[in-house]
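## tool: complex_structure
## caller: assistant
## args:
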Amino acid sequence: MTLLLQQLINGLMLGAIYVTVALAFNLTIGILNFLNFTIPPLFMLTAVMAWAATQFGLPFGLTGPLGWAAALVFGVVVAVLASLVVERMTFRYLKTRYGDATEHAIPLVSSLGFLLIFQNLARMAYGTDPERFATPFNDMNLRLGGLIVSLPQLFSLALALLIVFGLSRLLKYTRTGRALRSIAENPDTALLMGVDVGRIVPVLFVLTGLLCGIAGAIFAINYGQVYVGMGDEVGNKAIAGMVLGGLGSIWGAIAGGLTVGVVETLSIQFFGGDTVQAVVWGLLVVALIVRPEGFFGHHAIGKGKL
Amino acid sequence: MSGYLGGVLVILCINVVLAYAVFLPVAAGQLNLGGAAFQAVGAYATGYLATNYDLPVPLVFVASGIASGLIAFVFALSILRTRSVYLVLATFAFSEFVSGVIVNVPALGGSMGLPVPPHLGSTVVVAVTAATTVVVLLLMQTRFGMAMRAIHDDDTVADLMGIGVRRTRVAAFTVGGVLAGIAGALYAFYFNFVDISNFGADSSIYLLLFVLLGGTQTIWGPLIGAAFFTVVPELFRNAVAELPAVTHLFGFSGQLDTSWRFVFLGVATVVMMVVRPEGVVTRIGLGRLLHRTPASVSERSQPA
Amino acid sequence: MTAGADVILSLRGVTKAFAGLKVVTDVGFEVPRGQRMALIGPNGAGKTTIFNLISGVFRLDEGAILLQGADIARRPAGERAAMGLARSFQNIRLMPHLSVVENVMVGQHVRTRGLVDLLTPLWLPRNRIWAEEAEARLRAFGLDTYPNVVTANLPYGIRKKIEVVRALMSRPKVLLLDEPAAGLNPAETSSLRDFLMEVAAEGVTLLVVEHDMAFVRSLCERTVVLNFGRKIYDGPTAGVQDDPGVLEAYLGRRSAKGKDAAAAALAEGSIHAS
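## result:
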């Protein structure tokens, strides 16, 4: 019983990362109707670049190696900048010349291109081995009865929930939020209503980069290691979280992300570590067949033809 | 044919069959991000059947195609009733799922891989590829092929014209599944070993991208895409090995294996989506080449 | 109004709302077989919505749509096409990457039977009839200059006509045309009218949404006028410009110009509600 509870706690803690990354997915698909496959590599890039900064310092020999906190900030900045590059090259070029059914897929296809670029540049530069990312928090645990709760993880979970809450406020009450929501309704109407779409959309990509960066930083602190494959193995599972919660739903990201985290730790507990991939993605396939709109989704999402 | 060139030719052939497997759904307006997973189903079906049963090779081919096609059919039938972004997600999930399952099945060799006994030479591979190309060519010249292209251009209107949109898409996806299964069988029989790590999500993305870059309006696009992204990296294989500049950017030297090919494809994708998202080969381009369309109608005029 | 054998299409109490907002309210009218009928009204009156409800793009909330006596309101769009309904679109919806002939051949789709028609190459002798029929149709309407050119490349007026030819290829009983004259110059408009007269002479019933009143008067015998989703007039086209309700809808009761000006404007055909 204690073991089960412990796994449940571990699952929720792991889920915090999925929640944050799933939120990035949900924002872009909910507002721009764009399934952005650069999100997992941005998550990876943050952590790997932060590690690289602790080892080698900034590029071109600008300074010596950075401390862990400065390195994480550097990683987040890289993710935000990379996300802005993605915005320049994907969303700006939505229209094909004759407006056929695949035009909506152009940003998606570009983002697949960026996925290959980011993943493989990182692999070429740093190899695929896991590297240790040391922080003062690596062994700070809270003991509650027989249960162990990692403090940084608890902090991460709180942070993830806070971000979701803050973001939903931002979307509801700020000018930027209203502009973003009007773009989600209809980009053409938003333009007519005086929303400067060309200036608001980059804000969304900065948010995407920030969310991925925060998730990457959380991962590096919580697990004390980073590796190039973490985009594939961890970041991608946020897609499962997004779908389970409901495409485009901010609160769905919490439910979906935490569900994936718990399912993952429980399947390790009951079936062994090798089964995680089959269980999580199998669950997603089933969910897509049985309830594609997820826990909180609505049908407006994905109206573009892909 | 033997040695290095033979090996490149075989990979090219398998990539062409796979390209057509992905092309068919795309031609009907559906992206398939699980091409390599459907190939894996075919390859493992071949491996399993050839190891455990004494079946004639052609029968194994057929069975592998059917196995993959059947899964594609059930998959398309259940997912295609919802919005199309879900099919992209579902095919992506499927490719991760297939890798996850095969690693856990001892009868399929798990993560160790599965040896496949009989070897088929490059002649068979080339012959099967040629046959596949002809079949796809003929299929696209039928009313079914025309219906696929009509749906790709405008599915609402196609529906109003009485074209069974969902039926056509399910059929296109299923035939694509069969072709992917056959590509898997070719792979298994030629290399005599299947390892799931060769059929991951990355391979599926690679596959979809070279099909899209080649162009999906005609059957020549996938052929060009597959040929370009198979042959060009081979041409530069040696040149790139002596270019370690990128890896030293941050003072650390990682591996320079085949990663650069993916970077090359990624850059090509991003650039192409900006300058020519419809791919290299288009019907308009082909029409100019073949029929010498006069310039006067080439300019698209707008309403007054 | 007569009912039964000679009414080919009839709408009864058709109502449709989007997000709680009623776009079409309790609209009913009947189209006799072989008639050339117009559906007009100011912008947002619900004309295109009615076309979308008849052809099956949207499902109606209430009411019935009868095609030759059978309620089609809840049948899939493809089935309606097979029963003899075809349409064109306000903004041309040709398949941009299909050639002219191929586009027209898409219109034949509902007439194909079985897998043999579907899965044999179109260049086989048994299938040549399809392309030949399409080419003959295009020739008959003077559109055969570039049969193999992708339609994305063609001028607007030509694409507009090709769309009508495509709709005709299903051999429809009722043809719905959404603003066929929009964006055409006077010469093109007059050639389109002659073209549609020929189509009607072949026994096809026409229902036309159009803003160009001169065009409507020269083509259509009867007119239904909609305003804010409700029917406000149903009668001879000639009577539209004298109907007080219609004038009010177009210019408003307190218009500075007054009724006479409105009537004059309608008579000249200079009122384009778009």
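## assistant note: Confidence is low (pLDDT under 50) at residues 1-5, 253-258, 268-274 of chain C. The first helix of chain C runs from residue 47 to 55. Handing back to user.
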